[in-house]
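Quick illustration, no need to memorize.
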Amino acid sequence: MSNLHRPRQFDLIAFDWDGTLYDSTQIIVRCIQAAVTDVGGQTPTYEQAAYVIGMALMPALAHAAPDVPKEKYPQLGERYRYHYALHHNDLSLFEGVLPLLEALHERQHLLAVATGKSRKGLDEALHQVALRGIFDASRTADETAGKPDPRMLHELMAELGVAPERTLMIGDTTHDLLMANNAGCASVGVSYGAHGRSGLEDLHPRVVVHSVAELHTWLLDHA
C-alpha cells in the first residue's frame, strides 16, 4: 500500500517552530546572550541559552539570567527583541521542510504550529516564508499558557476536533515533548535543534530523528 493511501495514525500533526521547522537556534542563543550581557547579567553559556528555547519569552530570559533582578526584566525583553530584529531576515526554514509539509498536506493531515514565539513573531515568519494557508491552526505563547503546560495542545485539538490519541507533537526541546506528554499525545523529537538526543529520549517520544529528511521518511511511514 502506498504512503499516500495508507490509513493515517494521526489526524493532527503539531510542530514546534524554532529549531524544528525554522533554522533559528544559533541566532536565538546569541540574542539571549547579548540581551543578558546588555543589562549587566552574567552571560549564559550556549547550553544554558539553548535550554530555554521553546519557553515563552520572559520566563525563558528569566531562567537564562537568574542573576538579573526582576525590575530589569522589561529592559531584558527589549534588548532581546532588539538583537533578534537585527537578524530576522537571516532566518529561514530548514532545507526540506516545505516538501515535508506539502507531503503531509497531500495525505490530508491537519497541520498546526505550537510555539513559544509571540503571535506577531509567528505571523511575520509565516508571511516571510510564504507559508500562509499551509497550517490549519496555530497557538503562540502570548495567547495561551507556555510550554510545557498542555493548554496549547488542548486548544488546538479542541479547535480542530481531534482527540489526543490522534495527535502527534514534533519538537526539538524537552519542553515540547513534556507538553505532549502532559496533553496525552504522542511525540517525535528532532535532535538538530536546541536540545540533544539524550534529553529528548528520556521523555519517551516515538522516535528521535536527526535531520528533516529522516523526519520526512518516518512521518510518511508511521504517521
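The chain has two domains: 12-23+92-222, 25-90.
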